[in-house]
Amino acid sequence: MRVCFRSSVRRQLIDEYRLRHAAVWPDMLRALKAAGWHNYSLFLGEDGLLIGYLECDDFDAVRARMALTEVNARWQAEMATLFDNPDQAPDEGFQVLEEVFNLDDQLATAESTTR
Prior knowledge:
alpha+beta, Alpha-Beta Plaits, about 120 residues, four-stranded antiparallel beta sheet, single chain
């Protein structure tokens, strides 16, 4: 499963957001991997637009596994002040985007119909 989501970092705190993500806590990194977050990347625009991408077995399941970890609770509390809605844990405010095109999927479909 490929997942893309958006969120929004407070514009005046973009530099702080970048700084914190330059060296994410090793126990947070290990927890993400153990919970099933693969090929996970974050992209940040100058206006605070945050786009995340990951691959996983099931997005709800990997989020639930992370919610059970102590390190995630600490990380979300630390990061909350950087987002537009500081009263909500950042990982609860993700707006999942619909995938409307994937090159590999369409190539596979096209190749199977031309045989």
